[in-house]
Each structure stands twice: as structure tokens, then as C-alpha cells.
Amino acid sequence: MRDLYEVLGVERGASQADLKKAYRRLAQQYHPDKCPDDKSAEDKFKEAANAYQILSDEEQRAAYDRYGFDGIRGNGGRGGPNAGFSSVEDIFSAFGDLFGDFFGGRSSAKRQPRGADLRVDLELAFAEAVWGCTKDVKVTRAIACATCNATGAAPGSKPEVCKTCQGKGQVVHAQGFFMVQTTCPHCRGAGKSIKDPCEDCRGRGAKPETATMSVTVPAGVDDGQTLRLAGKGETAPGGTTGHLYVVLHVQGDERFKRDGDDILTEIPVSFVKAALGGEVEIYTLEDNCNGTAMIDMKPGTQPGDVIVRRGQGIPHVGEHGRGDQVIQFKVEIPKKLSARQEELLRELATDMEENVKAEKRGLFSRKK
Question: Does 13 reside within a domain?
Fold first, then answer.
């Protein structure tokens, strides 16, 4: 599959204006009206549209720049050059405003209506976001009515061509020297009228359905990211289906603080071990974020010192490798000491010639 910037013929640092200009040029070159019955031109038309769809979205562009096609499989793209659009009509529906000055103001190809996009929120545990998972979500959406085969007309009858717009779905009005094109007020853009509506869907051609869908969450996702399930939104009668957007909400874990694909783990250690060194047990992301490991702490470790475990952090989304785990030592000072501990510390203070607070003596410990 070709690089998206190569598809549009622009540099990787191209502005949004440059991207739009490049896409308009290619769309006009390979437009179905200029290249009828040319499968190669249609494929290039779709390829350019998919490239522009991804790169014109700042979030998807950032993911693509960092991870390539793997980075956009679950977040707006599906990893292929033509994956974003199932038909030419879908492209017209998505980017109709860009074709405003082509071929007399609109494409001669009839634009199909597009179903509404839907959004659901998905809660994830920290470990599920780190290592990926498969979750089920319930979605209520409009689907094509099976009784009337999405026509909206009762079985045995058919929709008739709208007499107001002659089936075009749009009408043209003269306003002074200008011609203004608007959606037909009679058929609301459908191009058809229904005299005998279907009883199941009441002439809409679609009816609500609640379905359970399986969502594959890739490893390494973060809170607030969005997955797109193309074609899983609502159905537009006689048109294409919208998309389902899954917004992720990741629960935190007090043992790990995330920074991109790196994690910070604070490990409390005694001041004695910090001074003398030794092995320390730490938390790791292994075993579904319940793993542990032993690391060697050097003598003389200071509060805030860190050890970096390379490649032991969060997996990169859609890519090999992981971030780093940063272990930060939190040296703890005891608030209470036993008599023996205090005695030993005072001996150490004397040996180090430290001027410390005098030992407290009780009333009955005074010399007579």
C-alpha cells in the first residue's frame, strides 16, 4: 500500500490548504464523470479520497505519522488505500462541498444519502488498555426495514418518482442573477414519494434495532482515544451506512503513572537500604499488570533517583516495541524508632561528627 502523502503528491509537512488543493486536483482528474467505466481511475479516485480523509483529520494524521497504517486501523482508518469508502457515492456524501465547482456545480452521479454516525463510550481497566482486549458494546441504531426492503413502501407497492424534483432530490431556485440549489422540500432529498407506506417502518425505510457488537481494542490505547467501526452506524434508506465511534475511558492504576507509552513507578525504600544498597521488588506490566521483578539498587541512592527499564513500558499501538518503565525511588524516613535503633543512629551520628538533637531523658532517668 502506498504512503498517503505519496498518494496526494505532497510533502509530509504539507498544510491543510495544500492537502485540500492536492486532493481537489486528483479528484477532478479521476472523477467518474470524466473517466466513465474506467476501473483504474475509480480506484485512484477512492485512494485519493481515503488519503485525504485521514490526513485532513489532525488526530488521525498524527497517528499515521507516528505509526503508519497500523496506527489508524482502529482510529479512523482501516489500514488499506481504499478502506475508508465502500463506493464513489460515499465519497460524494463525505466531501460533497469539495465538488461544488466541478461539472456545473455538482457531480452528475447521484449522491446517495448517508446514515448518521453514532457514538458509544467504553470503559476499560488499565490492564485492558495496556494489553488490548475484546469488549462487547450495545448499540441502538436504525437499520434497513426487511419488510419493505428499505423502500418505505408497503409490500406489493413501489415508491414513485417525486414530481417536484423529478427524482433528483434537489431543486433549483432563481435568486436574482444566481441559481441556488436546495434539497427538495417534498421528498426531502429522496427523489421519491410514497403513497402507501410500509406499516413496520411507517414509510421511513428503516427501523430501530438494539444490537451487541464486538469491539477489538488494540494494545497500548490511552484514555480519550476513539476507535471507528466503519459502516456500523445507522442506515440511510437507499443510501450508505454511517460509522460507529467508540470513545475509550481508561481507569487509572495507582502503581503506574502513564506518560505516552512510558510509565513511572514509585518504589518506597528505607533510608538504610538507600544508603547500603540491595535488591528491591518492583511492580511490572507483565502478567496482566500484576507482575513483579527484582532490581539492584546501588549504595548511596538518593531520593528521586531513577532506574530506566528499556522496552518495559506500554506497547506501541499497532507497532512492535514498547515504551520504557521508569523506576523512581522514594526514600522513607521512619517517624518512630525503637530504643535500639535510636542508639545505633546516635552512634552513627557521633562517628560522622553530626550535631543532632540531644537525647530526651525522662524525669526518673536524671542522676540524683
Answer: yes
- Is 248 a member of any domain? yes
User: Among candidates 15, 33, 261, 26, which has minimal Cα distance to 130?
Assistant: 261
Task: Give the CATH number, domain containing residue 274.
Answer: 2.60.260.20
Note the pLDDT tens digit of each residue in 172-191: 876 656 667 788 887 777 77
Give one word for 346, left, alpha or beta, with left for phi > 0 and alpha for psi -120 to 50. Answer: alpha
Q: Which residues contact 324 (CB under 8 A, 6 or more apart)?
A: 262, 263, 308, 309, 310, 311, 312, 313
Structural domain span for residue 132: 113-142+206-252
pTM for this structure? 0.60
pLDDT over 60 at 110, yes or no: no
Identify the domain boundary among 112, 134, 163: 112
What's the confidence (pLDDT) of residue 109? 46
Instruction: Specify the DSSP class assigned to residue 358.
Output: P
Vertex 317 angle, CA 327 and 77, to 5°: 160
- Cα–Cα dist 102/33, whole Å: 10
Q: Work out the mean pLDDT of the chain and round it to a whole number.
A: 83
User: Has residue 93 been placed in a domain?
Assistant: yes
| 39, 95: one domain | yes
Q: How much is the average pLDDT of 189-209? A: 83
Q: What is the DSSP string of 295-306?
A: EEEPTTPPTT-E
Where a domain ends, among 236, 252, 268? 252
Task: Confirm if 201 and 185 have CB atoms less than 8 A apart.
Answer: no
Per the structure, how many domains does the chain have? Answer: 3
Report the residue count for the chain.
368
Outline where 253-361 has alpha helix (H): 271-276, 286-289, 339-351
Q: How far apart are CA 361 and CA 352, in angstroms?
A: 23
Specify if 105 maps to a domain: yes
Cell readout for 318 is 499497532
